[in-house]
Task: structure prediction
Amino acid sequence: MVNKRNLVFVTAAVLAAILVPQVLTMLGEEYLIGTASRIAIYGLAAMSLNLILGYGGMVSFGHAAYFGVGAYVVGILSFHVFDGSSIMGFQGTDAAVLSWLLAIVISALVAFVLGALSLRTSGVYFIMITLAFAQMLYFLFVSMERYGGDDGVIMYNGRNSLPMVDLSDDTSFYYVCLTFLLAFLLLFVLLVRSRFGKVLQACRQNETRMRALGCNVRRYKLAAFVIAGAVAGLAGALNANHAEYVSPDYLHWTKSGDLMIMVILGGIGTIIGPVIGAAAFLLLEDFLPLLFDATGFPTFKEHWRIVFGPLLILVVLFARGGLVGTFSAMRGDHER
Amino acid sequence: MYLFLEQLLNGIQFGVFLFLIAAGLTLIFGIMGVINLAHGSLFMIGAYAAAVATEWTGSFALGIVIALVVSGIVGMAIEFVIIRRLYDRDHLDQVLATFGLILFANELMTILFGRTPLFLNVPDALNGSVEIFPGVQYPLYRLAIIAMGVLVALILFLIITRTRAGMLIRAGSTNRDMVAVLGVDIALMFTLLFGLGAVFAGFAGAMAGPLISVEVGMGEQQLILAFVVVVIGGIGSVRGALVGALLVGVVDTLGRAFLPDLLKLFMDPASADGIGAGLSSMSIYIVMAAVLIVKPNGLFPVSVARH
Result:
């Protein structure tokens, strides 16, 4: 699969991603570096969803829950540093390494519990249950008055601190996000091609047969679910740092929908698809309103979703492979 | 004790709403195999239609009737244009396409009516309260909702078990292809059934209008609760939807009303309030998890034919 053309393409894409801040600075559009960071963060989250959605065939409609839990871990730890109080006997922390690690571990734990429950079912039950559990966590955070309830937690101490890297600098922060994104892209390529990945995909294609072969299907699915939850938690932790703010909105069910749209828009079941989907989604979100304003439809500026909704329906009905699929079809590839 | 009785009735009344939404959802999934996220939008459309029509005509009853007609027509139009193309697709496509529908519907309502909620008054005839037990006053309107819900459940039960259309619905849920082969116009039946589900949702929305503010996004909160109901009751089972809806309605209402006070017996008031609030907002999901552990296919499992 790694042929020469792909290698050239990947190298070019990585180089382009590395040069983004320089190019934007040259163009005098530095504020877009933040958007680039968000693309990397949401790309990571969408990629994690794609592991269970695209490769595992598990339609989870509650993926924002893990994104939000990871973000809240960072937000709450930072809150206790600012507040000077302790949480269950422990001090809060501003250290990136510790709080991000905790974000990963805790969202993995939550994913383990909720995944073990949800995976008792399949099909449409699974969709409804993952959605319901995500909503449960949403209401849990809304009811936590200590951490701002509806309003969420503002990280008054700013972004976490990392040795030798100044995260408060947008360009450095972008490179941190990009490093995580590239590292996990590589990891996911290896994961999907490993025995584990093969079994996971086989479970999607024919679960009954895998079970007949003596494979413990639920255990594999749960493992994938936990990995996806953990990575989403990391993405959430990064996003909390990006925004310096965490609120229940991170876990809102529409956020889960957004992540799903990113996966589909980019190309489900492809490695790079979700990242492209995240870029397309976030750029559309930023520029569709401007586009409507500029082309003489100012009414749609605020209401761009009235165009985006039907657009989504059309993509689902007619462009199933997403952007990656369409691009491959144009190149004449016949992969997948 | 009186307070408990009052809250219990509130819970039942909430359950009736959830049943009206969940019944359509579960029928549509059970028979057509489609998961329809836009069902909550039909609830919203019903509420808006009732609010606007009542404003125009000055009659709440007329407003309800118009709301039923509007939500039924919108429901059938949605089925005809979009849902119809999703029957043979997987659930993921259905979720995404109907999610797109929600975005569209919510934005359209925002453009048409703005972001300020509309208010609908309780009709004069149903205003006031009655003494249900010596010393217990209960709002007449909420009682009317409970009565309406029982009536609708009864009608639905009679349609499904006693009429030819109901027989076709039951047959369709077991084996759709067989029914089609026997010469029944399945496409028409699905459109009508979808319209019926839409009418229920719209009816719930119209009745809810005077109790909750009519605003964009009001349907989605109900939709997710209706999902919980359907999961508890068993997908495709109307009886399950009824039991699940009452269970969720009562547990949620009683939890919110009494859990903090109950916890105060064990812990200091400040933390009891905090934990109570958190726990009561999670209560129905905990019930759902418990049901799942005992009966993964819901309380009234229905064997749905694989489409």
